[in-house]
Each structure stands twice: as structure tokens, then as C-alpha cells.
């Protein structure tokens, strides 16, 4: 009987369970009876041998369930060769657990860092297949990750709710969305939520340009403005600094987050109300949307096919409308940034949306 291990690593998202279900159903249909071992709390479960033998019923009824039934944790790749506080070695123990269970393959559902670790395990001789999980949609080599569209749905709903109160009270609202290094959620939610200003990490902003947009709307009789900013949005003057100096400046920020800094800068010469709204971790929560349920099922089926073909060391990806796979080594350590010149941004600018540049 074939034996497989599965784990969810890094930040949670809405479609982890849906993807695990897709993998399990695919394996059962391709191999017949299989043993699937679910590792608890991500790579930590693999390190400490903390797992449970899954039953078919464990994967039933979870297509629409958010979070992860296995739990998750963060084990940073850069600390992979550093023992845990109790002295436990990470990689050697992962390999030990894999071999002890005599697994035929380890399936890893995770983001960029998790897939770097997956590639490391593959280089250590384990059979590994990865699936691209992240609400940030920043994994290089795939057009789409599972969890992204559900997060966009949540962020868009938050903007919709803010829109009505901003309009009612003639306020400027700064809505902060997730995205430290990349702005995919901010871009998509900003456009779908009808934002007037969208601020991305990839396009350093000029606060004067943001104020200019507010003034222009006021002159047109539009007394409210919606600004959607990624948590990693950065002003032009800071972006120009050398990397080390830039990090030091950002680390010494007096503001709890970038939204408060933007709001305060706007309020310096604006007589109206400026408010901040932060959806925060709600963007990771709740049930997955229809799109994510579909793409997760497709990802799971492809993972099962790769395992059937013994085509290991691969990451399942969505490319040009098709489900495919690329070597883990090709994607490990790379981020997929928003291209400032991409078609969607140009179209958004045509619609009058400002990016503060």
C-alpha cells in the first residue's frame, strides 16, 4: 500500500482544506487504498513526528471549511539549520520521520518559504510535491495561488463597507490590506472596491500626489476618498535610501502601521476627517470562495497525477489557464512582484485611479 505524508506550512488561508481534499481524493482514485499521514502544525509535525493517520472521512465536508484541519506554523527557511530551542535538529529529524513512516511522497501546501524548504528536502533525497498556497499570490512561476481570490473577496467587502460610511460622513479613509513585499491583494481589491488611490510596495508613493487626488475629488463635488494601501507601501523618499538605511528608518517608525502614517500626513493640510480601517487577519479567514474551491481541486488532482507518474521535486502551478508543474528549484527563493507597467495598472490609471506616483 502506498503511503503519503501531507502538511500545511506558513500562514493559514481559506483553501488549505479544499486543496488537501483534492489531493486525497486524487490519490484514492489513482491508487485505490492509500495511507495518508497528516503532520500537525506544519514542518514542526514532521520534525517531531507528530502526525495522525488520516481516514477518508477526515477529508469529507472540508471543501468549504477555512483554515487547516492539520494546523500550521512558521519554520523560517533561513533558520532551517538552526536547532529549535530544545536542541532538536530540524532537517535530520524531518528525514528521519519520513523514512520511519516509509513514505512514498511528502505533499507540502505552503508559500514561498515553505516551498524553499520543500526543495531542500527534495535535494536531501525525499520525494516531494509542492502546492502553491498564499493569499499574497507572490509565488514565482504560477499565475495564481490558492487563497488569493478569497482574500481579495474579504478585502473588497471591507472596502465596500467603508465606502458607504465614508460617503455618508464625507471622510477620507485609508484602508490597509495585507502585503509586505508585494501588492497583488491591494491592487485587485482596490480596483474591485472602487478605490480612488491604490498604494503598492512596488510603486513608491508621493504623499503630495495622494493629496492632489483628494483635492481634485473635492473640487468635483466628491467629498469622500477611499485610499487602499498595502501594509508594505513606502514613500518615495524612503524608497530612495540604501537598503540598510531604509530598513533602519522603517524599523523606527512611530506609527503602528503604514495606514496611520499616511492618514497623519494627509491630515496635516486637510480640514476634513481622515480615518483608518484595517481588515487585518480577516483576509485570511472564513470560507474559501468558489474560485479557490475550483482551483484547489484542480491543484490537488494535478499533485496526485505527478505522484502517480513519480514526477517528484515539482510545484503545481497555474499558467496561461492551464494546470502545470515546474521544478521546485526554479521557484524557490523567488517572489512574483506586481509589474508597475502591467496592463491592469495601466487600465486602472485610465479609470482615474491614482497610484501616488
Task: Compile the SSE list and pairings.
Elements: E1 2-8, H1 16-31, E2 34-39, H2 43-48, E3 51-54, H3 90-100, E4 105-110, H4 112-123, E5 128-132, H5 148-169, E6 172-177, H6 184-192, E7 197-199, H7 207-219, E8 225-230, H8 236-239, H9 243-251, H10 258-267, E9 274-277, H11 290-308, E10 314-319, E11 322-327, H12 328-331, H13 343-350
Parallel strand pairs: 1-2, 1-4, 4-5, 5-10, 6-8, 6-9, 7-8
Antiparallel strand pairs: 2-3, 10-11
Summarize the structure.
By secondary structure, the protein is α/β, with parallel strands linked by helices. Helices cover 40% and strands 17% of the residues.
Characterize the structure shown.
This protein has 357 residues and is an alpha/beta fold. 40% of the residues lie in helices and 17% in strands. It contains 13 helices and 11 strands. Strands 3-2-1-4-5-10-11 form a 7-stranded mixed beta sheet, with helices on both faces. The protein has a 4-stranded parallel beta sheet with strand order 7-8-6-9, sandwiched between helices. The longest helix is centred in the middle third of the chain and has 22 residues, at 148-169. 46% of the residues are buried.
Amino acid at each position: 500500500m502506498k503511503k503519503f505524508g501531507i502538511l500545511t506550512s506558513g500562514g493559514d488561508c481559506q483553501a488549505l482544506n479544499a486543496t488537501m481534499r483534492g489531493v486525497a481524493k486524487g490519490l484514492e482514485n489513482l491508487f485505490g487504498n492509500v495511507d495518508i499521514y497528516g503532520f500537525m502544525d506544519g514542518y514542526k509535525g514532521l520534525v517531531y513526528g507528530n502526525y495522525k493517520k488520516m481516514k477518508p472521512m477526515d477529508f469529507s465536508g472540508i471543501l468549504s471549511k477555512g483554515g487547516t484541519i492539520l494546523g500550521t506554523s512558521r519554520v523560517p527557511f533561513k533558520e532551517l539549520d538552526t536547532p529549535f530551542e530544545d536542541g532538536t535538529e530540524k532537517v535530520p529529524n524531518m528525514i528521519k520521520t519520513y523514512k520511519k513512516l516509509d513514505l512514498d511522497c511528502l505533499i507540502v501546501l505552503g508559500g514561498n518559504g515553505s516551498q524553499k524548504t520543500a526543495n531542500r528536502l527534495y535535494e536531501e533525497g525525499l520525494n516531494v510535491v509542492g502546492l502553491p498556497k498564499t493569499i499574497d499570490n507572490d509565488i514565482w512561476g504560477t499565475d495564481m495561488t490558492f487563497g488569493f481570490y478569497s482574500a481579495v473577496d474579504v478585502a473588497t467587502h471591507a472596502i465596500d463597507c467603508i465606502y458607504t460610511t465614508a460617503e455618508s460622513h464625507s471622510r477620507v479613509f485609508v484602508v490597509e490590506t495585507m502585503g509586505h513585499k508585494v501588492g497583488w491583494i491591494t491592487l485587485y481589491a482596490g480596483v474591485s472596491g472602487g478605490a480612488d488611490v491604490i498604494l503598492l510596495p512596488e510603486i513608491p508613493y508621493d504623499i503630495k500626489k495622494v493629496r492632489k487626488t483628494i483635492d481634485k475629488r473635492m473640487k468635483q463635488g466628491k467629498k469622500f476618498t477611499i485610499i487602499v494601501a498595502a501594509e508594505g507601501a513606502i514613500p518615495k523618499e524612503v524608497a530612495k535610501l540604501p537598503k540598510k538605511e531604509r530598513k533602519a528608518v522603517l524599523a523606527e517608525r512611530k506609527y503602528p502601521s503604514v495606514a496611520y502614517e499616511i492618514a497623519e500626513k494627509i491630515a496635516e493640510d486637510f480640514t476634513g476627517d481622515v480615518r483608518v480601517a484595517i481588515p487585518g487577519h480577516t483576509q485570511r479567514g472564513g470560507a474559501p470562495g468558489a474560485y479557490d474551491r475550483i482551483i484547489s481541486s484542480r491543484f490537488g488532482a494535478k499533485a496526485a497525477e505527478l505522484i502517480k507518474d513519480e514526477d517528484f521535486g515539482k510545484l503545481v502551478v497555474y499558467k496561461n489557464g492551464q494546470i502545470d508543474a515546474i521544478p521546485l528549484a526554479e521557484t524557490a527563493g523567488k517572489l512574483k512582484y506586481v509589474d508597475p507597467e502591467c496592463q491592469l495598472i495601466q487600465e486602472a490609471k485610465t479609470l482615474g485611479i491614482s497610484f501616488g506616483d
